[in-house]
Design goal:
alpha/beta; 5 helices; Rossmann fold
């Protein structure tokens, strides 16, 4: 059976329950935030490029991940979703600050979902891709958690501009201990 790159998103969405609080880190234009809302979640969407109004069930935080995580935050989330964002952040900061932040702001039994990629050739992003992650690097901080999905794969396809590229993707979905 061929690998379906959309399995990551489908698996995360299947775990969202009405009333859940979801943090969408690196939310872009908010498309996943709105999908979480369709599943009944309340969403905090973090991205400096967020549109002004994503609706009443989305709390927009138009700041970087670094600024958001440095601010005082007593919120606890049922799911922390970080798709296509950590490769643009400093790897040491992600491993030493962001991953522990996830653990400290998740409810017991909550879900962390991380998907990261690298493209060849590298397209001209407005923010440089700083880090390529191996599966071992993503799983190490969550070794005592329950693994739901864990994979590293490559596939060829068009990027957002339509240029054909090779994508190297690493996905991890884990559930925190109760």
């Amino acid at each position: 059976m061929p690998l379906d790159p959309h399995d990551f998103s489908k698996t995360v969405l299947s775990r969202i329950q009405p009333g859940d609080h979801v943090l969408d880190l690196g939310a872009g234009q908010g498309s996943f935030a709105l999908m979480f809302v369709e599943h009944g979640a309340h969403v905090t969407a973090v991205d400096p490029r967020l549109p002004a109004d994503l609706g009443e069930h989305v709390t927009a935080q138009p700041v970087t991940a670094e600024v958001f995580c440095a601010a005082p935050n007593a919120n606890r989330y049922d799911c922390v979703f970080a798709r296509n964002v950590i490769q643009f952040l400093d790897k040491a900061w992600v491993q030493e600050t962001l991953f522990p932040w996830f653990a400290n702001h998740l409810v017991p039994g909550g879900t962390v979902a991380i998907s990261t990629f690298y493209q060849n050739p590298v397209p001209p992003f407005d923010r440089p891709m700083r880090s390529l992650y191996t599966l071992d690097e993503l799983t190490a901080p969550f070794v005592t958690w329950t693994e739901i999905l864990s994979r590293h794969y490559e596939h060829r396809g068009p990027d957002m501009s339509g240029q054909l590229r090779t994508f190297y993707t690493t996905d991890l979905i884990v559930r925190s201990p109760n």
